[in-house]
Amino acid sequence: MRKFTRFISCAVAMILFSTISVFGQDVMVIENTGPGIIETTINGDTLDGGVRANPARIYQLKAGAPYTVVSPILFGSAADSTSTLTIVGEEGGKKALVLTTPKDGGDPFSHSVNGSLTLKNVYWPTMTTEGGGTVLFRLQGTNQRLVFEDFIHENQVSGDVVSLNGVDGEMDIFLKNCYFRDMTQFKNPWNYAIFTRGDGKAIDTLWMENVTVANGGLLVMNKYCPVNFAFFNHNTIQNIPRYWNFMEQWKEAYFTNNVFINCLWMGEMTETMLSQLQSQTEYGPVEVGLVNLMHPSKDHWELAFPGETAPTIDDVKFMASNNLNFTSPFLDNYYSGGLNDTTDFPVSYTDWGFAAAAGLPVPPHQVVNLPARFTSNMTDTIAENHDNVKIMDNHIQVDPGMATNMIESQAEGDLYGTWARANFSWADVSVPDRLEFTIGDYDAKTIPGDGVENSAGMTNVMDMPEDFTYSADVMSKIDGLKLGAQEWYGTIEDWDSEAQLAMVKKYYDDGVAIGIEENEAVAASISIYPNPSNGVLTLASDSELSGAMFFDVTGRMVKRFDLNGEFSRTLDISDMNNGMYILQVETVTGAAHSTKFIKE
């Protein structure tokens, strides 16, 4: 029997942390007793050889407490990478704060996780209190899971938030109710990502919902990476110089209810449109967009599915619907070449490394730089030719009237343009100072919250100095809500992700909205009571009813009643399982009304 390695005496351990059981879960509460307590506690909770002594343990940080890590968390080992590191902030107060100060003034470090990782309800910036930084977490092992929920992060300094390059096999990634703030140094248009994954390594599930990014680099990245299932729903993505999403091989993917503002704002130079994967697989330069689908006939799909049959186009399910895309007019001066002080047109000195071989103009050469498209020409063409690829009901170049604009003036727009010119290697252009682009003050020692930059912390994003609600009358046809991350509206306390997915899938299948009134007059004339119900439900209407259908959260119809033109009917639903459903009531005229329904 291997000896349990204790890192501290039992008497002191009782002061530093306590272990409790919550609904059968093993929870260790870590008190804030001084710098280094988080990593000391987690690293010490092992058997000889690095095997986790308590593989399912949850490490809980006290609400509002400021913790400091001074050395790396080292979780799991090559001999044991099956556990999950779970760190959660205590509910019922401000988020736990985790700051980094390398011991003895040492270099920034990364936390190493041989296993899966869950971070929930914490504020954890990457920048050290001394101003440095690197990749925050590195995951290793096989077939792992990454979960960020109610997570606030800012000030990425160097590298990505999470590196998944050391993970073999598949990955499941869930980003929910998060805020990533000031994610780029504006030194390089490609940095920095929320996560990166090695070439050709699969992602099984990629779920990004109610996530906000303000100032970012390449957010979600993998090259030649197949994604079996993706759900991007109700996200607000702002001020991304290049591609917010560098993946195009989607077997099943839904991009719905998102707000994209100034994404790929550097634009595409029409003469050198070979910078994204899709473009590189074409016969010549093509436009790329914010949301792209590569045709499965391309060789890279075969490379991405080694040892198995790659999907065909008929296997794909893809939808981009009810999104808003807007590029600030304060960037127009940059696009038109108005910042050029030496010629009448923009000039690029960029050599993509293959310009001459591809028959493209070599530097220096004139360029025509245009705002990014929402979807590429190729994606649009695929959608036109295949019913299973759907691009519909999007709002293109619609100003949402954001309460806090990321680019608030022409002067700021010209700063962005000047920075972009420098990154396209235009001659005699210096890079503006990074702080001129940030939302916050780019100082890890000051904590955002309570409407100011230096405060005692935050309970949620609504406490932040900025406000990403919008005033335009643009609503989702899928769920009746404002587009973008719902955190800013305070409407996610009872959020049901599975019900959201059910609505989206239903919209994909037949274009019928769930959760909103397709026909307001019909909706007003239909009474549904009681709701919730424990077994009997009554429908009454001024219109003749043709049917009632119940869908579970996966979008599967579980029960149907034919109403045969009746105006009222009592339905027996006692045999249905308890839970949430979508009830769709249709009239003989074909009008439909859908609403959420709970069976108790």
Describe the structure concisely for a colleague.
The chain has 600 residues and is mainly beta.
Give an account of the 3D structure:
This protein has a domain at 517-599: Macroglobulin (MG2) domain (Immunoglobulin-like). The chain has 9 helices and 41 strands. It has an 18-stranded mixed beta sheet that branches. The protein has a 7-stranded parallel beta sheet with strand order 14-16-19-22-26-30-36, with no helix packed on it. Residues 1-16, 271-285 and 515-522 have low confidence and may be disordered.
CATH T-level topology of one domain:
Immunoglobulin-like
Separate helix tally: 9
| The CATH homology group name of one domain | Macroglobulin (MG2) domain
Mind describing the biggest β-sheet?
18 strands, mixed
Low-confidence stretches: 1-16, 271-285, 515-522
Beta-strand content bin? 25-35%
Average of pLDDT: 83
| Gross morphology | globular
> What's the architecture of one domain in CATH terms?
Sandwich
Q: How does the helix and strand content classify structurally?
A: mainly beta
Distance between the termini: 49 Å
CATH class of one domain: Mainly Beta
Q: How many beta strands in the DSSP annotation?
A: 41
Q: Helices and strands in order, then pairings?
A:
Blueprint lengths: L3 E2 L4 H7 E6 L2 E6 L6 H8 L1 E2 L10 E4 L4 E4 L4 E2 L8 E6 L6 E5 L10 E4 L1 E5 L1 E2 L13 E13 L2 E3 L7 E15 L2 E3 L13 E3 L5 E7 L2 E3 L5 E3 L3 E8 L2 E5 L4 E2 L2 E2 L1 E5 L2 E5 L4 E2 L7 H4 L8 E3 L7 H6 L12 E5 L2 E3 L5 H4 L11 E2 L16 E2 L2 E2 L2 E3 L1 H9 L3 E4 L2 E2 L13 H14 L73 H14 L9 H6 E4 L6 E16 L5 E16 L6 E9 L4 E8 L1
Parallel strand pairs: 3-5, 5-8, 6-9, 7-10, 8-11, 9-12, 10-13, 11-13, 13-15, 14-16, 15-17, 15-18, 16-19, 17-20, 18-21, 19-22, 20-23, 21-24, 21-25, 22-26, 25-29, 26-30, 28-34, 29-35, 30-36
Antiparallel strand pairs: 1-4, 2-3, 27-33, 31-32, 37-38, 38-39, 38-40, 40-41
